[in-house]
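Reopening closed ticket. The problem is back. First fold of the pair:
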Amino acid sequence: RNLATIRSGEYEGLNKKINSNDWKPDFGSVFNKKSGATAIGVRDFLIAYNINLNTKSTRLANAIAFDVREKGRIKRKGHPVIGEIVYGKDGKPENIPGSLKHVKAIGWYIEEFGIAQISMNLTNITETPIHNVFEEVVNKANERGASVTGSELVGLIPLKSMIDAGKYFLKKQNRSIGIPEVDIIKIAIESLGLNQVKEFDPNKNIIEYYLDKITNTNGKLTSLHKE
C-alpha cells in the first residue's frame, strides 16, 4: 500500500525480499536481475502542495512538518531533537504520530523565494482535504511562533478540492456559498494564498479546466505539451 515500503532496500535488495514469505509473488518465482523491476499501483489523486512560512529556518519548517505529517517524529527521551531515541520491542524507533492522516511532509528552504516551506504530498484528499491541511499548518506554525504567508500548488488539483476549499472559507466568514463557481474558486485561491510565490491559473492548475482547454470540439485531446 505504500511505495516507500516497496522501495525499501532498493533494487539490490529486491531479490531477497521477494523470496521471503511476506513478499512471495502471486505469479512466477524467479527474479531476473538483468530485466529490472517496475512498480505499478493505483491510488487516489495525489496533490503536491507547499506551504510558505515567514522564516528562512529549515529547522523550524521541519518541526512544523513533523507536527502535522502522519508519520510524525521519532520519539526521544528528554530533548525532542537530541534526546536518546526510544526503541520498541521490535528494535525499531518508536514514532509520535502527527496530527494529519494521509500527509507526508518535510521542511526546506527555497533559495528562489527566500523563504522556508513545508513541502507535502496529500495522498487522500477525500479524507484530508487541502483546506484542512492549510488550517492545521497555520495553527501549528502559530504555536511555534511562526506564520503562514501563503502556499504553492505543484502541478494540478481537482476542481472539487478548490470548490470545497472555497465553500469552507466562505462558511468560516459566515457568507453564502450560493455564488458563482468562479467566485468560489477566487475565495479558495486568496484564502490559501496560492498566488504568493507564483501565479495560480485555474485554467492551467485545475484538472477539469485544463482538460477543457486542451480538448478540441470533437472531444479529442489536442496536446499534452506544456505551453
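Second fold of the pair, where the issue appears:
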Amino acid sequence: MARSLREVDPEALPLLESVLEISDGFLGDAASGAAAAPAWAALGTAAQDALTAGLARLLLRVRAAEPLHVACRGRRDFDVVRRGVEAACHTDHMFRAMNSLLSGRTSPMDLSVREIFMAESVRWHLERAAPHERLVVMAHNNHIQQTAVEFDGVLTALPMGQHLRLALGEDYRALALTHTDDHVPEMSVDTDGTEAGTDSGSGVGFTLVDTRLADPGSGSVEAALGAAGLGDEATLTDLRRSPAHAQGQPLLRRIRTQSAVQSLSVPEAFDAVLSVPTVTRDGAVPF
C-alpha cells in the first residue's frame, strides 16, 4: 500500500504512517480480536479517536484519487488498496465492538459491522472470479447462517450469511456443522481479555477448555439424529425439504453453537447440516 501511495498520492503517506504508528503501538503480538480489544482499550480516548479519524481520512483520500491511481498503477492495484483501507476501517470499529462485548456492553449492530464486511469481501472476490468459478467460504455457523443471530430472544448480529442470501438468493448455500458428542473445546476468556489459565504466549487472548455439554433438548438437530439412530455416524442432512408441524412451525428449531444451544428455525438458517459423532482438540493448537 505504501508503495502505491508513494507513486500515486505521496501526500497521503503521512496519514498512513500515523495510523500505522498508533496501531503498531498497541497490537504488538496480538493474534486475535480477543487480545487486541483490551490492548486497544488501554490506548486512551485521544489515540483511539485519532486512529479512527486517520483511517476515515485515508479511505476518503484513496477513493478521491481513483482516476489517478487507475491511470498510474491499474484497476486491480486500486481495488486492492481501497479494500485494504476498508478492511482497516472495519477492523478499527471491531476493536471498539469487541472491547464492549468483553466488557459486557455491546450493540448488535456493532457486531454486524464485521458481518457486512465479510459478506462484501465474498462478493468482491466473486465479482473478480471467472463466470464458471464458485467460492467456498469456511466460517462459524453463526457467520454463515441466513437468519439473524439471537440468543435467549436477544438480537446479537445480522450475519454474513443473511447479507449474502439477500444479495445472491439461492446462489448462496449455507452448510452448518455440528456434532453429537457430550463435550467440546470452548473458548475461555478473562473479563479483562487476557488469557485464562496458563499463559501459552500465543497472543490470541483466550485458551481452549474442554467443556461438558448439557442435552441439547427436543427439537434440536442433535437430538433428532440421536433419535434416528444416527448419532454415532457422520451424516449430511438436507434441510431444504425439512418437515414441519401441522401449524407450519419447523420440527428442527435448535442447534448447538460451541457450548451453547441456539434457538432458531434451522431450515431457514441453513440448507444442510453436516454432523460428526465426536469432537477432538487439534494437538497442534498451543493455547
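Update: turned out to be a display glitch only; the data is intact. The CA atoms of residues 148 and 158 lie 5 Å apart. Residues 175-276 form one domain. Please close again.
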